[in-house]
Amino acid sequence: MQGRIWMPVGWQEGDDAVPAMIWTYPSEYETPRDYERDAVRDWNANEFDHMSYLRWSLLWTTQGYALVHPDVPIVGEDYNDNFIQHLSDSLYAAIRHLDNLGLVDPDRIGHGGHSYGAFATGNLLTRTPYFKAGIAGDGAYNRTLTPMGFQRESRYIWQALGTYLNMSPFFHADHLDTPLLMYHGGDDNNTGTFPIQSRRFMQALQGLDKNAVLYEYPFESHGPRAIESYLDLWKRFIDFFDMYVKNPAAPVEADEE
């Protein structure tokens, strides 16, 4: 696998390791060779990008964070039978490599994603201990609500029931011990990510007394478009990560007897 990292504005080689946002979007491949071919692509560092909530927004780097975008290849003939393992392994490899480079503080990393990336965030936060906080937008968290397939999954739920259930963060909500910020367009018409996905996941997390919040944006579809929505989201993103990733509160120690 490969990845890209943008260091914070003003960072110089030799500076201390910094907190990081890792933003991902998994991709499926039948063979490792398929991934190797797809991974050969260019990135124009001088290209202008509009302010965006997506992975390529460098606004994170203006707030003291490294922005990391690793590939997350899910490989196999029936890709999703390997989804959880390959997702977890990819992020573990990325974090270990960043730690070895001395660029990122492994104890101050958060994860984010939109749509299928939000689905990945839900799975990572309920399955792994890697992250201090997560951001998930316009995602799907219960695959029984997409029974006729999703993303590149061509099997119906009745043909791969175990895979559908295992991939659904909703059914592992009781294992989420990481603060999670979700957002969703109130008029999301993407067939796999109707707002009920976030609403029901949030209901479960509330019932389990988890540290989670959901912001729903009226009149927005599968991703914000209004500048007011962008500005509100970014304020919430940065405040959330500053609290739980950049400056996490020290654990309270019990008084010694």
How is this structure best described in words?
By secondary structure, the chain is an alpha/beta fold. The protein has one domain (3-246): 3-Layer(aba) Sandwich (Rossmann fold), CATH 3.40.50. 30% of the residues lie in helices and 19% in strands. The chain has a seven-stranded mixed β-sheet with strand order 1-4-2-6-7-8-9, with helices on both faces. Strands 3-5 form a two-stranded parallel sheet. β8 (180-185), α5 and β9 (212-217) form a beta-alpha-beta unit. The longest helix is centred in the last third of the chain and has 20 residues, at 227-246. It is globular. The N and C termini lie far apart (50 Å). The model has no long low-confidence stretch (mean pLDDT 91).
Mean pLDDT: 91
Structural class category? alpha/beta
- CATH class identity: Alpha Beta
Number of H- or I-type helical stretches: 6
In short:
The protein is of the alpha/beta class. Helix content is 30%, strand content 19%.
